[in-house]
Specification:
CATH topology of the largest domain: Aminopeptidase
Shape: globular
CATH superfamily of the largest domain: Gcn5-related N-acetyltransferase (GNAT)
Radius of gyration: 20 Å
Structural class: alpha+beta
CATH architecture of the largest domain: 3-Layer(aba) Sandwich
CATH class of the largest domain: Alpha Beta
Number of domains: 2
Number of helices: 8
Largest sheet: 8 strands, mixed
Distance between the termini: 54 Å
Strand content: 25-35%
Length: 332
């Protein structure tokens, strides 16, 4: 994709130094994904197709915009578009929009993936607006995900920064979804905007968990965030959760996110246990664990609600739902 002053293109190894310069211009050395600062590592990741950047490159070879495409979801056929930024001198010129349009309309299709997702920051509306304009749909609100230190150079965050997960589904697959009673209205609202084939079933708190819990934990020390993917929430779920949480809080995590499959007939029981332990609704993640997943989250300190800035009416509705459930949970 060409422009009068720059070209949108797949990363070339010769761009690596320019990418590092772009991130230093915007974030100093504070960006948490250190790969972008190291040309050798960035080229290695590109060659291995672990991280495939799309850049905006001027005729002189200067990198003025960047977005990485990489696997970060448990479902390896869902890719994330993230790490996006534009040189301050070129903001407002449409660079970000052109990069994401290229990724959504051309590159993701060529990759043959199930879905593309992103996490639009909520300390400003610019990325949110671009995501909406290229057809991505908001499905939740991840409260306090990013540390304020990541935005220190721009001075654009008053505290920890929330993000909106946004999805574009390329290969919708039919599946049965069990809806926890307490989140019936929330989840139906989120599904209505996605237009994907689902059969809805009712989960009952009297349906008891079966089998052994299976989970995988990721720790992001720089952000003080833990993410736990439950591929199966079994009969030992509550006991395992208590042990896991004790360990994570002992490691000074500020945010704990849990992902649980919605094909689980006893999801009502699981969600009840989580809410009793201080976890509140975070949203819907389509196809995230092979099947759709619900996001539940715990924030150790009072969340930075005042710092959440939103663009769309849908995002504002999601904030209402998430904040409402947080208030109910903390009163328990």
């Amino acid at each position: 994709m060409a422009h009068d002053t720059y070209k949108i293109d797949i990363f070339h190894p010769s761009d690596a130094t320019g990418v590092a310069e772009l991130f230093r211009t915007v974030y100093g050395d504070g960006y948490p994904v250190k790969l972008v600062y190291n040309p050798v590592e960035l080229i290695t990741a590109f060659n291995a197709k672990e991280n495939i950047p799309v850049v905006a490159r001027t005729a002189a070879g200067k990198i003025i915009g960047y977005c990485g495409i990489y696997r970060s979801a448990p479902n390896q056929n869902i890719y994330e578009a993230g790490q996006g930024l534009v040189n301050p001198e070129h903001r407002g010129s449409g660079v970000n929009s052109e990069i994401l349009t290229y990724i959504n309309e051309k590159f993701a299709v060529e990759l043959g993936i199930d879905a593309l997702f992103g996490e639009a920051v909520c300390n400003h509306i610019y990325m949110q607006k671009v995501c909406c304009n290229v057809g991505n749909i908001e499905t939740g609100l991840e409260v306090d995900l990013m540390p304020a230190e990541a935005y220190a150079k721009e001075k654009s965050a008053s505290g920890r920064v929330a993000v909106l997960p946004v999805f574009r589904i390329y290969k919708p697959k039919e599946q049965t979804v069990y809806i926890p009673a307490v989140y019936k209205d929330y989840l139906h609202y989120l599904y209505e905007g996605l237009h994907i084939p689902r059969v809805f079933a009712v989960s009952d708190e009297n349906t008891k968990p079966e089998g052994k819990t299976e989970q995988n934990t990721q720790i992001f020390d720089f952000a003080k965030v833990a993410r736990v993917a439950f591929s199966h929430a079994g009969a030992d779920f509550e006991g395992l959760l208590n042990e896991l949480e004790k360990d994570l809080l002992g490691r000074a995590m500020a945010v704990i996110q849990l992902w649980v499959k919605l094909d689980t007939p006893w999801i009502d029981n699981v969600v009840g246990s989580l809410r009793k332990s201080g976890y509140f609704f975070g949203g819907l993640l389509p196809g995230w664990l092979g099947e759709d997943a619900i996001l539940m989250q715990k924030i150790v300190e009072k969340p930075n609600w005042e710092g959440v800035t939103l663009y769309s009416d849908r995002a504002k509705k999601i904030l209402e739902m998430v904040h409402e459930d947080w208030e109910k949970v903390i009163k328990k």
